Amino acid sequence: MENKAGKYLKYAIGEIILVVIGILIALQINNWNETRQIRKVEKEILNVLLEDLNSAKAFSAQYIKSEQSYLNVIETILHNDSIKTIINSNDKTTQYFNKAFWDFEIKIPVINTYSDLKNAGKIAIVQNDSIRDRLSILEANIYNLDKLIQDRMNVHQIRIDEICVENVNFLQLLKFKIPDYNISLGSQNDYIEIMSQPKVRNLMGIKAVLTNEALGYREDLHNEIVSIIELIKTELNDSQN
User: Fold this and answer.
1) Which residues touch 201 (CB under 8 Å, ≥6 apart)?
2) Which of 44, 53, 70, 195 minimizes the number of CB atoms within 10 Å of its CB?
3) What are the pLDDT digits (tens) for 173-182?
């Protein structure tokens, strides 16, 4: 009787062990499937991020080129010799002084995918700590650039726009911006005389400083974008191996 009970006990224990092992295997398979699904979603997110960043990189390069163009224009009109080379062409003269007195680059790259992930609380899906950290730094750099652009806009509106009100016939520049605008232009601007005025030269100097600072911020931001692109490419390549 005792032998029979012992056999039943051993059988029962064996069954329990088999059930436990079965449960553990099922959990392991479930965890493996979940991990595989998470990795699949992460890969999709990284690919969308990569596309977004490549687009931002292209726009960033355009904005850097634009910023450098404004800086070159200011340098040209502040130099007594180089300003004479553009005075000979009325269209070129108006183009240069319109950019110098009125325009500046205000656009910044946008990384929508990262913002969407962060707002949805899903940024943790990206498991690579380096990528997450660099994206956070990138977001801060974009914020800092945007703040600098806003500060420059305020300075421009408060001080540099005075040139268009007090020192030049702005209607000449307006006609360049809106060629079909039917207005009486008034007298031509004497840009050599205008650029000899200390106040105008100083305000253009301030704009040059602000533009150069914005250019530096843009270049740093561009380099950060390029760096993150390479990190994501490496991560995607490693996930395929």
Assistant:
1) 78, 195
2) 44
3) 888 888 888 8
